[in-house]
Specification:
single chain, 56 residues, alpha+beta
Length: 56
């Protein structure tokens, strides 16, 4: 299961710097490439607004 970034994203970039597989790309809200995501949760651990969540 990959993580997905919700609309709460404030585009601060914290998650992108933490991703060990560089699955996160910049935008109005950041986007996680589900094919690269290894479900480690590093992005969710550093996000100040809790935007990255496991996909259901």
């Amino acid at each position: 299961m990959a993580y997905k970034i919700s609309d709460e994203c404030i585009a601060c970039g914290s998650c992108q710097a933490e991703c060990p597989v560089e699955a996160i790309s910049e935008g109005d809200i950041y986007v996680i490439d589900p094919d690269k995501c290894i479900d480690c949760g590093s992005c969710a651990d550093v996000c100040p607004v809790g935007a990255p969540k496991p996909e259901e």
